[in-house]
Amino acid sequence: MNRAEIFDKIEPICRKIFGEGVEFTEKTKATDIEKWDSMNHVTLIAAVEKEFAVTFDLMEIIGITTLGDFVDLIEKNKLNADH
Amino acid sequence: MNLWEKYYNCFTEHADANAFYIGGRFYTYGEFIQYISGSQQKLLKHTNRSIGIPVGVMCHDTIETFAAIFAVWFSGCHFVPLHPLHPIPVNTEKITQSGLNCIIDSGATPPDYAGSLEIICNDGLKSREEIMIFAAHHRAYILFTSGSTGKPKGVPISTVNMNAFIEGFLDIYPDLTSEDRFLQTYDLTSDAAFTGYLIPLLLGATVYTIPPGSFKYLSIVKILQEQQITWTQFTPSVLNYLRPYLKSIRLLSLKHSHFGGEALPFDLVSEWAKCVPNAEISNIYGPTETTITCTIHRTEIDQLQEKVCNEIISLGRPLKGVRTLIIDENDQIAGPGAKGELCIGGDQVMEGYLSPSPDESGVWFMREENGIREKYYRSGDLVIQDEQGYLSFCGRKDDQLKISGYRIEPAEIERAISQVTSGMNSKVFGFTKTTGMAGIVAFIEIDKDQTETLAEMLRTVIPSALIPEKIITVSHFPINSNGKIDKSLLFREYSNQIYE
Fold first, then answer.
1. What confidence score (pLDDT) does residue B115 get?
2. What is the pLDDT of residue B446?
3. A20 touches chain B (CB under 8 A)
4. Best mutation site among A34, A38, A61 for testing chain B: the one with the most B CBs within 10 Å?
5. What pLDDT, on the 0 to 100 scale, is given for residue B449?
6. Minimal CA separation from B244 to chain A, in Å
């Protein structure tokens, strides 16, 4: 799965949590979306973990600031799983 | 020596030590003095050196915000904290009730409030002029709590109240020193925030704050770990949020882990205790009217289970200047082990609300003991006291909710709903979520498609902490045999939607 394919699966999750009317790209920052607060952050993490069957650790989660960071983490997790 | 002189002396004595860590950088006490002086110079021009004037401080969690607070105090005035993210009508209500005509704001674009308000912008403002310490006026600050009439209630706290709290707190924690690193996690408009800076700044210790715009609860863990914090306080809700990650948290530096603002479940704090093996746990309790904290339960981790009632950690015992009474439903002193309303007297109890109601018999009563008449505040909290004087929380006497440290009157939310829906009927209740934490549910006689935009509309008139998590449409409210809305039937009929 390449980055674009990973992002295509993340986007509908974001739409469900943060609502329509927002453009989601890899560069979208948490501060760009009003509803992306602490509570919705864990909802988003749980949904992404479920979608890709991965588990992030706490320090990885703390480091997330953009939607692209999710793509990085999933690529990293998939890479680790392949080895 | 008055309280402000004590603070100023401490600041000068520790001039080279770090006072704050804000936004990733340290500020020494010496720099802090310069920031205070900068704000004071401008403020004195406004007050013309008169004391006792209320001054608003827009609380941004910047060094300038803390400097503004102390500039107000050192100038013999009292401060009214305002939240930059609260809707303009909420802040306007506080401005009007407090009679403010001046706000100190370090924000880039201060909001445009109507009227003759003077905005002192103190962004980056520093001065080397010597600070002047005026005689402390009796009032220190005014906080606002949710009011049962639907309007926020102003709670003025005096310097006598504040001094009594500081002395009572340090009496329980004589081991805190200038070497401690305090993490302040609360909004500066909440009274729980005061402990996180009033205490360290009197010891010459360092105050750490959470960076703005970050995921606050996750940032707490990051700063606790990276900065080797030794003292912190947050709500049990934060702990509940962190629960899935507790297994990967280990904080060896933390010595004092305080909780306040909500009931503290034993099972939750027991899991946390494994993350902080070198810490003591404290459960803190206190209505705003009794100045920040009036009872504390300080305990070693291995003794946590000794003071637990209904799976909730004890509220502890009163601070040294606080007197407590437990009153039964007939207004008589409840016997040992009997449940009753906790009533609080002593030097930490405020003199009276900013706008007193004609009948405040539900708020206060006078009691004479040893020839001295004393005022007692009725907290509305139901407690039981054990033989050693430890208090256990047993619920509320009324509908008031306590969520994430915020005291919330359902009537205030119902009033806001009516305001944004042109008079729709609603009924707001607290409920216990499947996680065991408290939440807010609103039942409204409204079309379902209107509920989708309701939360957004409410955000324009009330703070986000008051927005119900569940908004449920009802065609009509069921009425019980007493002619009141049948809460149990509502909860039964809509349990799927409440607990989904």
1. 65
2. 75
3. no
4. A38
5. 65
6. 9
Identify the architecture of domain A3-82 in CATH: Orthogonal Bundle (1.10)
Which of B418, B435, B420, B492 lies closest to B469, judged by CA?
A: B435
**pLDDT score recorded for residue B403:** 83
Which pLDDT tens digit goes with each residue over B272-291?
999 999 999 999 999 999 99
- Domain final residue pick, B259, B283, B313: B313
Mutual orientation of helices A3-18 and A67-82 as an angle, nearest 10°?
A: 130
User: Hey, are the CB atoms on A42 and B219 less than 8 Å from each other?
Assistant: no
What is the count of structural domains for chain B?
Answer: 3
Residues B19 and B83 in one domain: yes
Across the interface, do A58 and B216 touch by the CB < 8 Å criterion?
Answer: no
Among residues B216, B237, B284, which one has the least CA distance to residue B256? B284
Residues whose CB is less than 8 angstroms from the CB of residue B71 and which lie 6 or more positions away in sequence, other chains included: B36, B37, B39, B40, B43, B104
| Residue pair B108/B84 in contact by the 8 Å Cβ criterion | no
d(CA B138, CA B175): 30
pLDDT tens-digit series, residues B466-494: 899 889 988 888 877 666 778 888 888 88
Q: From the candidates B185, B237, B245, which should be mutated to test the interface with A, based on the most A CB atoms within 10 A?
A: B245
Q: With CB atoms and an 8 Å threshold, state whether B217 touches A30.
A: no
What is the pLDDT of chain B when averaged over all its residues?
A: 91
Q: Confidence band (pLDDT; 50, 70, 90) for B160?
A: very high
Listed residues B363, B396, B429: the one ending a domain: B396
CB-based contact (8 Å) between B243 and chain A?
no
Asked if residue B68 lies in contact with residue B39, where contact means CB atoms within 8 angstroms, the answer is yes
Interface test with A, best of B217, B218, B437 (most A CBs within 10 A): B218
Together in a domain, B280 and B370: no
Any chain B CB within 8 A of the CB of A4?
Answer: no
φ, ψ dihedrals at B236, nearest 5°: -55, -25
Domain residues for the domain of B483 are: 409-498
- Give residue B214's pLDDT band: very low, low, confident or very high (50, 70, 90): low
Please state the domain extents for chain A: 3-82
* A67: closest CA of chain B, how far (Å): 14
